[in-house]
């Protein structure tokens, strides 16, 4: 039986669907299509100003212009950032989730503490770690002084990018942990009991039962980590403002769009290149990770 009755009421699902679809087309898909179109033009940010199609000139400027070395460094830094954040963040999150899932005393408190950075917001997180990494009176530098070492942290040309990676992992590890925890709690307990009867060790139980059955959670976390890391610019903006060898592709898009010249063709081309990188990594990750997923 049709759940929405007969006559005009049958149209309700389509009407309810039409409004969010209109918003999606207007505010997400539409601007995305125009970004691709603008990447092939010399459009500038002056209303009513005519523009012309320039073919691939904006894309050539990204890779072959005078400052192309900086752009390529940003791309390399983005790949480095994405790789380290994805691996370390998911490794730590899985480890913490497995430990918390052992029903330790105060597990809800641990869960809240690890998830707290997710809800703090980038500005608060940046303020916390700017104070912690204060080169003069910061507690971290005082700890370093015990080993006769000091650092300028976010003001260091060699180490600032590493500290940004650390802050990014600290900020979002709790989010990944929560997804892993949900996956772990959905694993049937009778599988562990059957494994225990067969004499499996803890490692064998994790490798043969737990890990395959939380593969969907693993896939979701890896994809979210890749997409989030490749889009990250806010924590860079709040800590180093792109200085000290910390620029990434996402930061370049932000800078060229909002703090560069009035030209919008080049930022649009940068956005398209960034999207293609994300799309490539997501497709490869899905192809590799989906093969591991099992059902029970």
UniProtKB/TrEMBL annotation:
The keyword Cell membrane applies. Belongs to the binding-protein-dependent transport system permease family. It is a multi-pass membrane protein. It comes from the Bacteria. CDD domains: TM_PBP2. Keywords: Cell membrane, Membrane, Transmembrane, Transmembrane helix, Transport. It is found in: Cell membrane. One of its GO terms (cellular component) is plasma membrane. This is Sugar ABC transporter permease. Pfam families: BPD_transp_1 (PF00528). Residues 75-285 form the ABC transmembrane type-1 domain. PROSITE patterns: ABC_TM1 (PS50928). It comes from Candidatus Pristimantibacillus lignocellulolyticus. The chain crosses the membrane at residues 12-40, 81-101, 113-133, 153-173, 209-230, 269-289. Gene3D superfamilies: MetI-like (1.10.3720.10). InterPro entries: ABC_transporter_permease, MetI-like, MetI-like_sf. GO terms for biological process: transmembrane transport.
């Amino acid at each position: 039986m049709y759940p929405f009755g007969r006559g005009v009421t049958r149209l309700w699902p389509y009407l309810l669907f039409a409004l969010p679809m209109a918003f999606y087309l207007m505010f997400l898909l539409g601007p995305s299509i125009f970004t691709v179109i603008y990447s092939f033009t010399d459009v500038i940010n002056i209303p009513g100003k005519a523009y012309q199609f320039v073919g691939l000139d904006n894309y050539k400027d990204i890779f072959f212009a005078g400052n192309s070395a900086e752009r390529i460094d940003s791309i390399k830094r983005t790949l480095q950032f994405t790789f380290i954040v994805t691996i370390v963040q998911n490794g730590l999150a899985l480890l913490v989730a497995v430990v918390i899932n052992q029903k330790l005393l105060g597990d809800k408190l641990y869960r809240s503490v690890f998830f707290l950075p997710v809800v703090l917001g980038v500005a608060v997180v940046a303020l916390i770690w700017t104070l912690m990494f204060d080169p003069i009176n910061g507690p971290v530098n005082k700890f370093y002084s015990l080993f006769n070492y000091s650092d300028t942290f976010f003001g260091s040309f060699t180490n600032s990018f590493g500290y940004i990676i650390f802050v990014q992992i600290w900020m979002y590890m709790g989010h990944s942990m929560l997804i892993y925890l949900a996956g772990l709690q959905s694993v049937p307990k009778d599988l562990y009991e059957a494994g225990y009867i067969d004499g499996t060790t803890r490692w064998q139980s994790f490798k043969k039962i737990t890990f395959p059955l939380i593969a969907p959670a693993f896939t979701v976390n890896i994809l979210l980590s890749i997409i989030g890391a490749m889009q990250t610019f806010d924590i860079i903006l709040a800590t180093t403002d792109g200085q000290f060898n910390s620029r990434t592709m996402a930061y370049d898009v932000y800078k060229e769009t909002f703090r560069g010249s009035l030209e919008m063709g080049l930022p649009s081309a940068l956005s398209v290149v960034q999207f293609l990188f994300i799309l490539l990594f997501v497709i490869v990750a899905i192809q590799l990770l989906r093969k591991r997923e099992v059902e029970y």
